[in-house]
Design brief:
This protein is an alpha/beta fold and about 250 residues long. It has nine helices and ten strands. The chain has a six-stranded mixed β-sheet, with helices on both faces. A four-stranded antiparallel β-sheet has the order 2-1-4-5, covered by helices on one side. Helix 5 packs parallel to helix 6. The protein starts with a strand and ends with a helix. This is High affinity arginine ABC transporter (ATP-binding protein).
Length: about 250
Amino acid sequence: MNKIIEVKHLKKNYGDKEVLKDINAVIEKGKVITVIGPSGSGKSTFLRCLNLLEKPTSGQVTFEGTELTDLTEEELDQLRQKMGMVFQSFNLFPNMSVIENVMLAPMKVKGMSDQEAGDLAHELLAKVGLDDFADHSPASLSGGQQQRVAIARALAMQPDMMLFDEPTSALDPEMVGEVLKTMQDLAQTGMTMVVVTHEMGFARKVADEVWFMADGYLLEQGSPDQVFDHPQSDRSKDFLAKILEA
């Protein structure tokens, strides 16, 4: 098994509130994991603990053989470059063009030349179907287009894996499909991905594994068929019955 991340006994508290309760999981290289479950179940907190944007209260997160909870902030920043992250909000710099947004981190962090970063940015924007918009301002794009630029920007750091925190939840319904299509294309390249999502069709179609979280626990892990068609826990049966009937 080619592990890229291993999580052991992960717990996260905010004051007296226990958000994550003894989570154990392994993410294998090249796999697409979708994390589903009710709102407030700890999914986004779990995702943010994988690159220590949230510091666990206890437990271990090991990424490519390195235990993250022992690292200094500087060492963490180095490792975070290998984990691209896409959030609900696009967070593009409004004063820069689309291509400048994608070029910025490779030039600043990786020391790429203007030419190298520009070539890479054009390649990635073409991959997400937006190279024709390279010189546009982010404000002139739809929400779906901005999120696809955000994906290209994360890929510009040439990460080993990608984390997506409900990337379509802030979008109008008609824009969701274009972002999911971009993510599906990315999955087919062999990119390791962990996706927190409410899009059950995407979870069923694209994931290698579906993880169901509720009440701070990782209650089920299995193939899409196992989790959607043969859920084991009462909590997941109840959740899926409500979601899939809606």
